[in-house]
Amino acid sequence: MNQSIPRRFSYALLCATLSLSTVAQTTAFGDNLNVVTSAMPMLAIGPDARAGGMANAGLALEPDANAIFWNPAKLAFLGEGTTQGGLSYTPWLRQLVPDVELMFANVAVGLGERSGIGASLRYFSLGDITFRNEQGDEQGTYRPYEMAVDVAYALKLSEHLSAGVSLRYAMSDLTQGQVVGGLQTKPGQTVSTDISLYYQGNEMNLPDGQKGQWLGGFNVSNIGAKVKYTESGREDFIPTNLRTGIGYNWTLDRYNRVTILLDVNKLLVPTRPLRDLLDEDNDGDRYEILKGMDDNVSVVQGMIQSWNPAAKPEGVNELMREFMVNMGLEYWYDDKFAVRGGYQHEDQTKGNRRFYTMGFGLRYSLIGLDFAYLFPADQSVRSPLENTIRFSALIDLNQLLD
């Protein structure tokens, strides 16, 4: 579908030119709005509908092929002889445009009783966009995209604890080599890694024949080099993120089981300081930092600085607002039918991504299907996923190939 859509073009242009500006805007929204931003936001989007139905609380969820995104360490608990494949499809901005979408394909294999491996491909398409120059002349129709390829390995350190690591190559081609702001653009590319832990406790006997089991996890994802979209532009951080969480499996009887999950996230990207421009042409080349610390630092320094209250315009209060909370609940009947719900909370000054989710899942023979739906909790902020059904499938490849 060839069409020129200003909103979609603006989104692609904004993402591609993040590296061209060194000065952040500050807007009043109760307190100052100071969102922590990064390049390649696709790397932080939860791709599957199972965790999506629980507001992206997936860190300590029981292992499946989607573990490579949420917590690679879970792959060690897949079990000997397990081979699973997954496919997920997420429409994006469906209220505005018909062909922006995120696709996720993955495979996971249990290697004996102590280890597991996985691989995945993510592809985020912005659809067909007609590019125009500053005079409004058409420069051609292109299909900007972002993609990432992952491989992961996990090993049990004990009966209950495992560690995992993944390696990722990611590319973001948003302008197809167009000239933006007088600068020749290029695809952004990076290599990154995830480091994770997963805990799965013993099943505990509870009254009336019930059982309980504690789960836990830790994942630092997208630790990698900065990217830039022009040769002379500023490099931007990718969304390095710390996710930690706990879960509880509550088995009521042989047919009924409930899982409760809580994840806490924090971007390990430095907060933008409050700057005052000193140059007359407003190109951002000269400025004075009024509050906070310079965010043009190395990757490691940026991860450390993200925890430093002195690096933030509003100190400790702003640091505490940078934590995002995801809560999810899943009910299974006979391990064949699931109902899910969840809530995500983010402070309004850090993006205000607050929403409720619901979903359901089916498991039959060699295939499992999951669906998710999102409801904004704050009608003043719209979500690209609202009123959209997300879909995932899990396939038991062992049975399929037998």
**Outline:** globular
Helix content: under 10%
The count of strands amounts to 23
Please tell me the total number of domains: 1
> Strand order within the widest sheet?
3-4-5-8-9-12-14-15-16-19-20-21-22-23
Level-2 CATH architecture: Beta Barrel
User: Helix/strand/pairing class, anyone?
Assistant: mainly beta
Could you please describe the fold and organization of this structure?
The chain is mainly beta. It has one domain (6-401): Porin (Beta Barrel), CATH 2.40.160. The chain has six helices and 23 strands. The strands form five sheets. A 14-stranded antiparallel β-barrel has the order 3-4-5-8-9-12-14-15-16-19-20-21-22-23. Strands 1-2 form a two-stranded antiparallel ribbon. Strands 6-7 form a two-stranded antiparallel sheet. Strand 19 and strand 20 form a beta hairpin. The longest helix has 11 residues, at 6-16. Mean pLDDT is 86; it is low at 1-31.
Please specify the SSE layout and strand pairing.
Blueprint: H1 6-16, E1 27-29, E2 31-33, H2 49-52, H3 67-70, E3 83-91, E4 101-111, E5 115-125, E6 129-132, E7 138-142, E8 145-156, E9 161-173, E10 179-180, E11 183-184, E12 188-200, E13 204-205, E14 211-224, E15 241-251, E16 256-267, E17 274-277, E18 287-291, H4 299-305, H5 315-321, E19 323-333, E20 337-345, E21 355-364, E22 367-376, E23 389-396, H6 397-401
Antiparallel strand pairs: 1-2, 3-4, 3-23, 4-5, 5-8, 6-7, 8-9, 9-12, 10-11, 12-14, 13-14, 14-15, 15-16, 16-19, 17-18, 19-20, 20-21, 21-22, 22-23
